[in-house]
Amino acid sequence: MTDPTAPLLRVPAVDDWWRLTRRFPDYRKASHSVLKDYGYMELMALVGDRGLADRRAAILEYGHGFNPALFAAFHARCHMTGVDDDMGLAYFPSGESWDAKRKERLLDPFPDVRFVRGLLGGPLDVREGSQDLVCSVSVMEELDPATTARVVEHAHRLLVPGGLFAGTIDFCVTGADRYFNLMQLLVSSGFDFRFDPARPPNANPYTILVENPTAVMTMYMQAAGEDRRYQGHWTTAFFVARKPA
Asked: Is the pLDDT of residue 5 over 60?
């Protein structure tokens, strides 16, 4: 079994995605959200490989939107909590549509999951020191540096000693400022985490896993309007940091 205390940082190649689809064949298909697909596969592998499901661990996912992947996989084997709120994003339902879709995709199918409306880094009805894993997929890139710092600090407080903070942060290969900011915060906030700020993301530009650029332009850049310009390929980094015991 993988060392449950080991930190991890990986910028994936396409081969990493392919390797994970052997375990999770539902994801072996062309996708407009391949970075999110990859992130969920990494988290599902983490929960299995590090024995979290075997001991009915407490797992909190924040910023999940309407994606049921982690809840569907582990609601019967772990104590699951989902934390999110309506953020009024241009590419996401809002208002009454947000409430209705949340009910349809999450509340009704998973009555044994505790769903909390709110955001990490702010007031939240979740007891500190109660979670074995706090995680997210393709969320941290949405946050400015000050909010990122509050989220990292809050995650640290929510975890039990020895608990894991894990997930992915997407970043544009032409500008990885938020990637570097998060990695430095993981070190400075007291997590057991290894990161050399002098080294760029370790990825081969010819084989790196990237988001479908047509999906980026048509879906994720809607707020930029008709005159939007493509800024470069987006990839992701998977990280696992440990709160010292």
From this structure: no
